[in-house]
Amino acid sequence: MTTKSVANTVTPALPLFYKKVVPLNKEVHGELYIEGIEGYVHTKETNSIYIAAIEFLRISPEYPIVFAKGSDDVVFPVALLGLEKHKNLFIDDKGAWTADYIPAYVRRYPFILATADDDKDNFTVCIDESFPGFNTAKEGKALFNAKGEQNDILNQAVDFLKDYQSHVKITSLFCENLSKLDILEPMQANIERSTGEKISLGGFMCVNRDKLKAVKPAKLAELLKTDQMELIFAHLASLSNLRELMKRIS
Questions:
Q1: HSE-up of 1 (CA within 13 Å, CB side)?
Q2: Going by C-beta distance under 8 Å and a sequence separation of 6 or more, which residues neighbour residue 250?
Q3: Per-residue pLDDT tens over the stretch 164-181
Q4: Per-residue pLDDT tens over the stretch 115-143
Q5: What is the pLDDT of residues 20-40, one digit of tens each?
Q6: Per-residue pLDDT averaged across 192-215, rounded?
Q7: Of 65, 90, 160, 224, which is the most exposed, with the fewest CB atoms less than 10 Å away?
Q8: pTM
């Protein structure tokens, strides 16, 4: 019998899945075409993914929602995709996503918004140039038209990024409030495979029910008024999905 300890890994040098992030420039990328993503094999080596607050009600029926802390001590929510490091249990052998809902972080790829360290309020649309669907062989759809204007496919991607970023801000405020209320605690999940191998999953946090009950009435009323209590309940209910992840690895 062996025991394997798995901890959450935080804040990679580049955003998760992205290998060569560059600003989108019509002078440089004016002839670029994009083919649709046929699979999600590029996500197979992650066991958690960032989610926005607006996704909680869609995420909670299928994935456990937990919280992580970055190297800057900022708390953020994630959906657990697996119980082992570098293992996404929602990807099959052909690279297909096997859950009904695919998190927005995954769906925005290969586009992303980036900010400068000294200017967090202005965003630049970037792409992952390493994405194999980008090409100049005119396969798929062109990002720009002959006049150098954005085509519909690029407009849709940019609109998605802007909407996503607005929800990231709302999510940050929610997590800041959880931290201020001091209702998060480290969580530990211990799983035993059918082979007898034991896996210990740590590095994440969840809301402590007793601490939540002890929150002052005025603060509880604020949580209800701002719909943050609904997010907390979705998080707590989603933890039952840990059993489903256990079934996937047993």
A1: 7
A2: 193, 194
A3: 999 999 999 999 999 999
A4: 766 566 688 999 999 999 999 999 999 99
A5: 999 999 999 999 999 988 889
A6: 87
A7: 224
A8: 0.88
CB 198 within 8 A of CB 1: yes
Q: State how far the Cα of 115 lies from the Cα of 117, in Å rounded to an integer.
A: 6
3-class DSSP string for the chain: CCEEEEECCCCCCCCCCCCCEEECCHHHHCCCEECCCCCCHHHCCCCEEECCHHHHHHHCCCCCEEEEECCCCCEEEEEECCCCCCCCCCECCCCCECCCCCCHHHHCCCEEEEEECCEEEEEEEEEECCCCCEECCCCCEECECCCCCECHHHHHHHHHHHHHHHHHHHHHHHHHHHHHHCCEEEEEEEEECCCCCEEEEEEEEEECHHHHHCCCHHHHHHHHHCCHHHHHHHHHHHHHHHHHHHHHHC
Cα distances from 211 to residues 123, 181, 182, 183, 205, in angstroms, run: 38, 9, 8, 5, 13
pLDDT digits (tens, 9 = 90+) for 91-106: 999 999 999 999 999 9
| 230, HSE (Cβ side, Cα atoms, 13 Å) | 10
Residues 37, 133 contacting (CB under 8 angstroms): yes
For 66, the token pair is: 């937990």
Residue showing tokens 């607006």? 54
Sequence letter at residue 234: A
